[in-house]
Amino acid sequence: MRDNNKVFHLAIPCKELDETVDFYEKMGCKLARRYDDRVTFDFFGDQLVCHLSPENIDAEPSMYPRHFGITFLDKEEYEKTLAFAIKKDLPFFNKPMVRFEGKREEHLTFFLIDPANNLLEFKYYHDAEMAY
């Protein structure tokens, strides 16, 4: 079980540290640490570490199977995040859409792409039980 004293950690590749910092700070993430080979962010309450690794960048990223992001339990938070991404002119990989329309697992989603072609999904399920 995850309690409030636990933080999820994810490490991903980046091709250049400055552009990575610019992107994630523009998204509203707080830079926690910076070293010569990586940067660490507070990514919506979890820890995201971007390791300088230009040789490991996906040249042609696809949504599946590799992406990460946030599942909102509050529709208003999802909508605010979408409006923020549009206002900040963040790069969309996929525009907002409805997945599994008409099914119990129906959800709203959009994908952003960071400078190293990592894909970030933001989604909201109409049925909160489908978030897991």
Give an account of the 3D structure.
Helices cover 17% and strands 39% of the residues. A hairpin with a 3-residue loop joins strand 2 and strand 3. The protein has two helices and eight strands; from the N terminus they run βαββββαβββ. By secondary structure, it is of the alpha/beta class. The two termini are 13 Å apart. It has a single domain, classed as 2,3-Dihydroxybiphenyl 1,2-Dioxygenase, domain 1, CATH 3.10.180. This is Glyoxalase.
Summarize the model shown.
The chain is α/β, with parallel strands linked by helices. The chain has helices at residues 17-26, 75-87, and strands spanning 9-14, 30-34, 38-43, 46-52, 68-72, 92-99, 107-113, 119-125.
Cα gyration radius (Å) = 15 Å
Q: What is the β-strand count?
A: 8
CATH topology: 2,3-Dihydroxybiphenyl 1,2-Dioxygenase, domain 1
Average pLDDT score: 94
**Low-confidence sequence ranges:** none
CATH superfamily heading? 2,3-Dihydroxybiphenyl 1,2-Dioxygenase, domain 1
What's the SSE pattern? Answer: EHEEEEHEEE
Task: Outline the biggest β-sheet.
Answer: 4 strands, mixed
Write the CATH architecture name: Roll
Assign an overall shape: globular
Protein name: Glyoxalase
Pfam family, one: Glyoxalase
Domain VOC: 6-125
Features:
alpha/beta, 2,3-Dihydroxybiphenyl 1,2-Dioxygenase, domain 1, 4-stranded mixed beta sheet, 2 helices, 17% helix
